[in-house]
Amino acid sequence: MNISDVAKITGLTSKAIRFYEEKGLVTAPMRSENGYRSYAPKQIEELTLLRQARQVGFTLEECQELVALFNNPQRHSADVKARTLEKAEEIGRHIEELKEMRQRLLTLAASCPGDEGAYCPIIDKLSGCCHTKG
Question: What is the value of pTM for the model shown?
Answer without folding.
Answer: 0.79
